[in-house]
Amino acid sequence: MKTLELLRKAVEGKLDRGEEGLGYVHPSTLAQGCLLAAGHELLRHPRAEPEARRRRIMQAGTLSHERIMGYLRPFIVARELPFLEPELRIKGRCDALLYIPPEAGVEEPGFYALEVKTTSSVGFAEVRGQGAPKPEHLRQCLLYQRGLRNFYGVPVRGGIVYYENRDTLEYQLFAVEYDEGELAGILEKLPRVISLAREGKLPEGEEYRLPADHWAHRYCPYLPLCPYGQEAVANAKGEIPPAVKARIIAERIVRKELKNPRKGRHRPRSLEELAREFGWE
């Protein structure tokens, strides 16, 4: 097949779907650690449409990516760099490949895989407080590095995770050293998931899915097809954590005192004072 013929097939949507009709797993799915979701992707099961609010957040994130790339343009070699790992059915797209030249005067010049994440103020405070990327973002960055190394042969030195607070536009940068050990638990199980997918089956067992209390169940695009995730979400919605209960009670007391201040008090107690008084700290 000649090159132009191949490109015509791409334009006309006539490219072969690939081995046995199997799909590919995206790095973002693998990074979450749920191999049951990976099985759904391999089997090309339909993904649920995100709710309107989450869709708007994703759209805002896409626009922010474009702006952030402008900041880093002096070091960008390529953007939206696709890669493929046929043996493990991994197909991804790295946000950008950066090159820091030796003449920049840095201690570690070279190629870096860039991952950009926009988040809320709460999420931003979390990563800033931890001083490290979230585990799923760290794994995604490692998968980008692995993909660029294996597919293009680029001697990627490491990765960079760029967080931006979408409320305040504050940012935080984290360096991610290349360490496949962080991916071992996921990549070792993936061949079994692929083998089952070829038989039209999904993996079973707790080792292939997220813990019941994991936050990602709520946002999983395969939630309508997953009884485990549905049960996890139902249980999470039905139980109020003790800390949340305490805050609700405290706020009710504060509102009551603002309406009917106790005699002899010059001012109502604050939420912080109530927390200390009731031992909720």
Summarize the structure.
This protein has 281 residues and is an alpha+beta fold. It has helices at residues 3-11, 27-32, 35-42, 52-71, 121-130, 135-152, 184-187, 190-198, 227-238, 242-259, 271-277, and strands at residues 76-85, 90-100, 110-119, 156-165, 171-177. The chain has 2 domains: 15-238, Alpha-Beta Complex (Lambda Exonuclease, Chain A), CATH 3.90.320; 242-277.
Describe the protein's architecture and organization.
Helix 3 runs parallel beside helix 8 (190-198). A hairpin with a 4-residue loop joins strand 1 (76-85) and strand 2 (90-100). The N and C termini lie far apart (69 Å). The chain has helices at 3-11, 27-32, 35-42, 52-71, 121-130, 135-152, 184-187, 190-198, 227-238, 242-259, 271-277, and strands spanning 76-85, 90-100, 110-119, 156-165, 171-177. It is α+β, with helices and mostly antiparallel strands and 281 residues long. It is built from eleven helices and five strands, in the order ααααβββααββααααα.
